[in-house]
């Protein structure tokens, strides 16, 4: 706590003195050292014991409203069973659901047997146990289903991006798990394993990543966004099918929102409506993603789901000297819609640092007016870059100076965030840096819902 207050104090003092142009650049300077991947024989990568034991167990929402869950796992020795047994906490009656199994090869790598099973007709707000690996070695896990969708349902999301599998990634995940603001579902903004940084995109690093994050994602759903490290496009070694490892390993409920591809889709969860967009799929006019989003935004009923959250990978507002303009063409296509439909917040990754924007828009431009400065706009979302999971590529610490006016807070540290919805009008957001104690927030903001409570927020930290 002491560290946080001290930082806040220093930042506020600095703000008035030095950074007259924008918000605050944190005075916290992280030790600059390269993030190193954990070696394959690390404790976090150990495969479970037993013949054909299910590994890399992970779950995600399976339908549009949270009454289904996709359970996925990998068996290495043989296909084994596709069946999941599951039962609610208050009932001894075991139910079962049958899934499917798939494999893929990538250059000279052949995957294990990847199982996906959609468990349906679940009751809301209920603890379920589930068991996978029927036949030889079984493993049992549990999850909570979300409450029924409704406007005042409190719910807490975690935010993690660009995680990878370095020692820093492990610290980020540990801090998320230990955060007293218990996240119930992770909104993951893309770039999962960084296997593509290895020679021939060594897909064993997809497997090790699956084992690493199992300790969280087997117990609570992670909502997936595709980043550039999911592309695995490598024609030089004959791999020309983009997203091959990602789409075989991670299923998402895209059909439930009438999407035609697993890279853009939506779900409702508690009082939130979450739209996942694809920075690396076509989004120009007439493309499937464009037509889908055009139809999707008017469907959001803020009386049912007050909180409208968008996830995408390449940020639209970014004041670091990395990935310049990479999110720009998508911003040009969609930003006016986000303002029109009053999106509450947009979470992105890609830039390996943290940044939170003011509510700004930049939609007035045309070639005649030449108006091309972002302006304060109370109908606009807050843009948050949370690409600070801690992957092996290290931190982005080179910032544009002076800090632009749209940038409210920025800091080059690894961390994670939580978005804690209280009711239809209020949500408490907090970003945590890995160097602090688990309960310490380094940047916070009370979000006022853009539909129910469109008042100016105080954005000072
Ligand atoms: C795949 O190829 C790489 C380099 O060409 C080699 O080091 C590795 O052992 C091969 N793996 C398999 C499973 O053959
Ligand atoms: C990863 O973090 C967990 C939980 O803090 C710890 O038990 C484990 O030893 C760590 N592993 C590595 C390789 O850092
Ligand atoms: C899972 O089942 C639900 C309920 O039948 C269905 O709406 C949804 O589309 C299914 N999801 C997947 C990924 O098959
Ligand atoms: C929006 O949701 C509310 C609450 O569920 C419902 O009463 C209303 O009919 C919905 N509006 C539309 C246009 O579907
Ligand atoms: C709210 O903020 C806008 C710009 O961000 C400003 O023009 C307006 O005066 C503010 N309103 C109040 C009530 O503070
Ligand atoms: C930071 O980025 C700017 C713009 O790309 C570049 O000119 C400068 O050399 C960089 N500074 C460092 C320390 O890398
Ligand atoms: C919504 O939550 C905020 C923050 O906890 C609280 O101040 C406010 O009174 C709540 N509104 C209602 C209607 O309960
Ligand atoms: Fe990225």
From TrEMBL:
EC number(s) stated in the UniProt entry for this protein: 3.1.3.2
Annotated signal sequence is 1-22
Domain Purple acid phosphatase C-terminal, residue spans: 380-439
Superkingdom to which the source organism belongs? Eukaryota
> What is catalyzed by this enzyme?
a phosphate monoester + H2O = an alcohol + phosphate
One Pfam family from the record: Pur_ac_phosph_N
Span of domain Calcineurin-like phosphoesterase: 156-354
Please tell me which top-level EC class this enzyme sits in: hydrolase
Q: Which UniProt keywords apply?
A: Glycoprotein, Hydrolase, Iron, Metal-binding, Signal, Zinc
Residue stretches making up the Purple acid phosphatase N-terminal domain: 54-145
Required cofactors, per record?
Mn(2+); Cu(2+); Fe cation; Zn(2+)
Gene3D superfamilies (alphabetical): 3.60.21.10, Purple acid phosphatase-like, N-terminal
Q: Which GO terms describe its molecular function?
A: acid phosphatase activity; metal ion binding
UniProt-listed PANTHER family? ACID PHOSPHATASE RELATED, PURPLE ACID PHOSPHATASE 10
Q: Which family does it belong to?
A: Belongs to the metallophosphoesterase superfamily. Purple acid phosphatase family.
Q: In its UniProt entry, what is this protein called?
A: Purple acid phosphatase
Species of the source: Artemisia annua (Sweet wormwood)
């Amino acid at each position: 706590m002491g560290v946080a207050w001290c930082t806040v104090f220093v930042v506020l003092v600095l703000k008035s003195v030095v950074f007259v142009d924008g918000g605050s650049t944190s005075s916290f300077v992280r030790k600059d050292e390269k993030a190193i991947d954990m070696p394959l024989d690390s404790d976090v990568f150990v495969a479970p014991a037993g013949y054909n034991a299910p590994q890399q167990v992970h779950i995600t929402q399976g339908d549009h409203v949270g009454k289904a869950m996709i359970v996925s796992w990998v068996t290495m020795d043989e296909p084994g069973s596709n069946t999941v047994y599951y039962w609610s906490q208050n009932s001894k009656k075991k139910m079962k659901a049958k899934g499917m199994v798939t494999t893929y090869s990538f250059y000279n790598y052949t995957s294990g047997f990847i199982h996906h099973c959609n468990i349906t007709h679940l009751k809301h707000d209920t603890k379920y146990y589930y068991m996978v690996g029927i036949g030889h070695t079984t493993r049992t896990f549990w999850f909570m289903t979300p409450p029924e969708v409704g406007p005042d349902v409190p719910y807490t999301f975690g935010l993690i991006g660009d995680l990878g599998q370095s020692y820093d990634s492990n610290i980020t995940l540990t801090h998320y798990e230990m955060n007293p603001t218990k996240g119930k579902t992770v909104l993951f903004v893309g770039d999962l394993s960084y296997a593509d940084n290895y020679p021939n995109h060594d897909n064993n690093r997809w497997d090790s990543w699956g084992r690493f994050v199992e300790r969280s994602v087997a117990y609570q759903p992670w909502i997936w966004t595709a980043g550039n490290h999911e592309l695995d496009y490598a024609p030089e070694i004959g791999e020309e099918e983009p997203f091959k490892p990602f789409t075989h390993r991670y299923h998402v409920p895209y059909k439930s929102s009438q999407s035609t591809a697993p890279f853009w889709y939506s779900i409702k969860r508690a009082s939130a409506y979450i739209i996942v967009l694809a920075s690396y799929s076509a989004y120009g006019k007439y493309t499937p993603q464009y037509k889908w989003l055009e139809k999707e935004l008017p469907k959001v009923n803020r009386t049912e789901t007050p909180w409208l959250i968008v996830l995408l990978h390449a940020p639209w507002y970014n004041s670091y000297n990395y990935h310049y303009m990479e999110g720009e063409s998508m911003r040009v296509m969609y930003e006016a819609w986000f303002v029109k439909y009053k999106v509450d917040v947009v979470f992105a990754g890609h830039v390996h640092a943290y940044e939170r924007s003011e509510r700004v828009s930049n939609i007035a431009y045309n070639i005649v007016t030449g108006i091309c400065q972002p302006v304060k706009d109370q109908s606009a979302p807050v843009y948050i870059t949370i690409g600070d999971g801690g992957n092996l590529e290290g931190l982005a610490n080179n910032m544009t100076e002076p800090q632009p006016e749209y940038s409210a807070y920025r800091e080059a540290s690894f961390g994670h965030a939580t978005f804690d919805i209280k009711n239809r009008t209020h949500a408490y957001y907090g970003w945590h840096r890995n160097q602090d104690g688990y309960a310490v927030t380094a940047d916070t903001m009370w979000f006022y819902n853009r539909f129910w409570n469109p008042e100016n927020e105080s954005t000072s930290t």
